[in-house]
Amino acid sequence: MSSGDANLKNQLDFPVEKGEFVRWDSQFRNWVTADGSAGPTGSSGFAAEKGRYHLYISHACPWAHRTMIFRKLKKLEEVISFSVVNPKMGDKSWDFDNYKNSTGDDLYAAKYLYEIYHKVAPDYNGIVTVPVLWDKKQQLIVNNESSEIIRMLNSAFAQFSDTEVDYFPERMRQEIEKINAVVYDNINNGVYKTGFARTQQAYEKAFDQLFSALDQIEKILSQQCYLVGEEITEADWRLFPTLLRFDPVYVGHFKCNLRRIADYPNLSNYLRELYQMPGIADTVNMDHIKTHYYWSHESINPNRIVAKGPENDLMAVHDRSRFAR
Fold first, then answer.
1. Which residue among 97, 110, 243, 257 sits deepest, i.e. has the most Cβ atoms within 10 Å of its Cβ?
2. Which of 122, 150, 165 is the last residue of a domain?
3. Cα(187)–Cα(170) distance, rounded to whole angstroms?
4. Candidates 53, 61, 117, 124; catalytic one
């Protein structure tokens, strides 16, 4: 046990503002760039190199899932290695105990993820989150903000990828950022604000915002193939992990139960289309997803009973081909 572990915060140690869930800000914000120059934040010195970087992820976590999707989309499997934590998160946050399809810590044989944080900041007492992008050369955390990591994977490692698809093209960035803001605050984080609300008023406020945003996205998808038109972008892959977890977890566990994604014709078909894209199903581990939420959030589910359903055939035929590409 590290001397600093007693001061670590967990996901529910958030500042209480009228009973509303407030997400902690990520603390490590350096950027990998093609030539090692400084990115939008942080320091220089993190050049894109094959085999230099490592991801610490949870298959359960939607934020970490984004990074594994981009690692797959950009064909970086031989460039960036990864370790998978145990989905059962206890009072010391993520650990590397043996669990089916977890890997342990391949680099340092750490028992807890906080040990990786303490390698960089021995007195760190913030929240320990995934994903973590780790620099094996300097033995430093590059970044633990998923929205920034996926942009690094999208562009910084182009010399090692055989795909030129850009999921954050400059000509579309304003529209992508606009829809990202709606999706992040009301849907990605909205399910957490609903599930972790500490008052009825806070719950209903988050609940209403969540379903208003889902209704808005359903309307957009009734008129075009993807969130920003006929071209798939970062915005779609930021929404996908939340949609994937919605019916199996958020409907029941987080009380997001006005409607299921299965009840939205366009959202449900869109979810299946994204899931069926080459390689994406390989990034999904529903056992880890359901086990993590139902087991780890003891304040919500004190008996840690993992829901058995629902049936959800993500390989069923979808109708998104009706939109001209």
1. 243
2. 165
3. 25
4. 61
- Residue 109 has φ and ψ, to the nearest 5°, of 55, 35
Number of other CB atoms surrounding residue 79 within 10 Å: 19
* pLDDT of 4 over the 60 cut: no
Q: What is the mean pLDDT of the chain?
A: 93
β-bridge partners, 54: 81, 134
Active site residue 117: no
| pTM exceeds cut of 0.90 | yes
State how many domains the chain has. Answer: 2
Taking phi first (over 0 means left), then psi (-120 to 50 degrees means alpha), and beta for anything else, what does residue 28 get?
Answer: beta
What are the phi and psi torsion angles at 225 (to 5°)?
-70, -45
Helix (H, G, I), strand (E, B) or coil at 67: helix
Does 225 qualify as catalytic in the annotation?
Answer: no
What span, in angstroms and rounded, lies between the C-alpha atoms of 71 and 152? Answer: 10
Beta bridge partners, 55, equal 82, 133
Instruction: Output the DSSP codes for 56-113.
Output: EE-SS-HHHHHHHHHHHHTT-TTTSEEEE--S--BTTB-B----TT----TTT--SBT
Q: Which residue, chain included where needed, has tokens 């290695």?
A: 81
> Residue 314 — very low, low, confident or very high, per pLDDT cuts 50/70/90?
very high
Q: Which of 192, 203, 264, 293 is catalytic?
A: 192
Residues 209 and 151 in one domain: no
What is the Cα–Cα distance from 299 to 272, expressed in whole angstroms? 32
| Cα end-to-end distance, the chain, whole Å | 54
Task: Give the per-residue pLDDT at 13.
Answer: 56
How many other C-beta atoms can be found within 10 angstroms of the C-beta atom of residue 50? Answer: 12
Gap between the Cα atoms of 179 and 48, Å rounded: 29
- Written as one letter, the residue type at 287 is D
